[in-house]
Amino acid sequence: MLGLALVAVAVSAATAVNEHAPTGVHIAFGTRDDEMSVTWHTLASNPGDPTVEFYPGIIDDVSESSDAPQVSRVEGSTRAFIDGGPERTVRFVHRVTLQNLEPGAIYSYRVGNPATKTWSRLFNFCAKRNKSQISPAKPLKLLALCDQGHRESAGVVQLVAAEVADPATRPDALIHCGDFAYDLDTYSGRNGDRWLSDVEPVAAYVPYMTSQGNHERAYNFSHYAERFTMPGHGARTGNAYYSFDLGPLHVVAFNAEAFFWPEYFDEAYMSRMYEWLVTDLRAANDDRANTPWVMVHGHRPMYCVDPKVPDLTPHANKPEFAGRLRVGEASGEERRGERVRG
Ligand SMILES: [Fe+2]
What single string gives the DSSP state of each residue in 8-28? Predict the structure, then answer.
């Protein structure tokens, strides 16, 4: 009986979930070049403000000794996100923006809550490098992928995590253009939680820059809008369209899904995104001396004519929209051998 009781206690301890524990830590470039946003969630509401502690350089543990590196603490905000499914599961999404980072400097950090004394492990990142720090000896490196699931993509995550873990091969940033977890909302969002934990060895170390795909459509793309923090977050874009510069590159994310879900995206939304995109690309074109490369990413091909694939058949507005763009394109959906207007 004692043996059984011990087993029961051990099992219960192993499966206990600390609802205050930070889950799915990920970072992204901020609105300004010297910013980095840090996002995570907890299943319980924490007293006080979410906090990031960060340190110059790489450290392995948080020491109280006098020669420990100087810690900086930044507080952020929390938003309760209610999943749209029948369980109405609540997650508390915490966001902190680190500012005045030195270009190209390495920082270690952990996230958590001083009131509950619940902290993540330590991670580290390299602040956005400026143009003068990008050279043939240390070129700009960007990874891009799309369509990555919790159950389907363990091997890919493992490969990318190994590349990120090695300082010699770590990219400046990663772009994920849609379809996360299959899906973020599955099992009342628990599948999305697991996926964010899967990619933490990547996304907590390298800015994880995103655009949304068709698999984010549930509940008006709310899991995508609520779980990520892209530049300009808090505006009307729900992380769906934004841009940033990275060395000689101007990177633009746009909402390719807007053409396929009229129940969510109306004419006013289309006009707003279109005007924003035109203004952004004109400015980028005027600034080619500074950013000679312009890269646009979205989940679907910009221009698609295969009538046998209803999912890819262009919306009536799409050819006109696409036809006015004259930039390269990265896209998640299959190209099926088509020529893409560009
Ligand atoms: Fe897709």
Answer: HHHHHHHH---TTS-EEEEEE
Kindly give the distance from the C-alpha atom of residue 126 to the centroid of ligand 1, in angstroms, as a whole number.
Answer: 31
* Crossing angle of helices 190-203 and 154-165, rounded to 10°: 30
Identify the burial level of 159 via C-beta atoms within 10 angstroms of its C-beta, where 0-12 means exposed, 13-18 middle and 19 or more buried: exposed
Between the CA of 257 and the centroid of ligand 1 the distance, in Å, is: 9
Say how many Å lie between the CA of residue 237 and the centre of ligand 1.
20
Residue 258 Cα to ligand 1 middle (Å): 13
Residue 70 per-residue DSSP state = P
**Predicted confidence (pLDDT) per residue in 142-158, tens digit:** 999 999 999 888 899 99
Q: Which of 243, 235, 240 shows the shortest CA–CA distance to 213? A: 240
Asked if 218 and 183 touch (Cβ cutoff 8 Å), the reply is yes
Q: Please give the distance, rounded to the nearest whole angstrom, from the Cα atom of residue 253 to the centre of ligand 1.
A: 16
Say if residues 297 and 251 touch (Cβ distance below 8 Å). yes
Contact 96, 112 (CB under 8 A): no
290-303 pLDDT, tens digit per residue, is 999 999 999 987 66
Which residue in 157, 59, 159, 66 sits closest to 109, CA to CA?
59
183 contacts 149 by C-beta, under 8 angstroms? no
Answer for the pair 24, 123: CB distance below 8 angstroms, yes or no: no
Q: What is the helix (H) or strand (E) element at residue 118, kind and residue range?
A: strand 118-119
Q: What 3-state DSSP class applies to 216?
A: helix
- Six token digits for residue 44: 């319980």
Report the candidate in 117, 114, 183, 187 with the shortest Cα–Cα distance to residue 150.
Answer: 183
Q: Is the pTM of this model over 0.85?
A: yes
